[in-house]
Design brief:
This protein is α/β, with parallel strands linked by helices. It has helices at residues 16-19, 23-31, 39-51, 112-123, 136-143, and strands at 10-15, 58-65, 68-76, 97-103, 129-131, 150-152. Strands 1-2-3-4-5-6 form a six-stranded mixed beta sheet, with helices on both faces. The termini are far apart.
Length: 153
């Protein structure tokens, strides 16, 4: 069954080890976050640093429209020490797969986030998606996807 969305995005799943040196893409992803101190930017710094030493188990999922990235998600199997809203001791990879998402404001409520989370579910294997809500609206967004085996951090 094909899902119908207000806007059908082009979804790409990229291996972080392949894109880590693509400074233009990393800069674009950083712009698509809440602010420089956000969890996504923290994770990008952490993963870039780790990827310089070893391969990392991380995927970046991008959503594009008219060849412009309008949203993205991080799918990570790497431990994190970031204090998320609901998990002050960070994330441990044996909990599942860390999933963080951001969609540009002008493209919200058009199905982009849903397309990203469905793609993440497909690429996380049998492990749970460990979600990290940033605020109440994001909490309610993730709450719609409990059927996709999610675990709130």
């Amino acid at each position: 069954m094909i899902q119908k969305y207000k806007l059908q995005a082009k979804i790409d799943v990229l291996d972080f080890n392949t894109i880590s040196k693509n400074t233009k893409l990393i800069k674009t992803l950083r712009k698509l976050t809440l602010h420089p101190g956000s969890g996504l930017n923290y994770e990008l710094d952490h993963i870039i640093s780790k990827s310089k030493i070893n391969k990392v188990k991380v995927k970046v999922i991008t959503a594009s429209h008219d060849e412009k990235i309008i949203g993205w998600a991080l799918l990570s199997r790497e431990n994190s020490s970031y204090s998320f809203m609901n998990s002050y001791d960070g994330y441990k990879s044996n909990d599942g797969v860390l999933f963080e998402i951001f969609v540009s404001k002008e493209y919200r409520r058009k199905g982009i986030g849903s397309q990203l989370i469905i793609s993440a579910r497909k690429h996380s294997g049998p492990k749970k998606l460990c979600i990290a809500p940033w605020n109440n609206p994001s909490y309610h967004f993730y709450d719609k996807f409990k059927r996709y085996k999610t675990k709130e951090l």
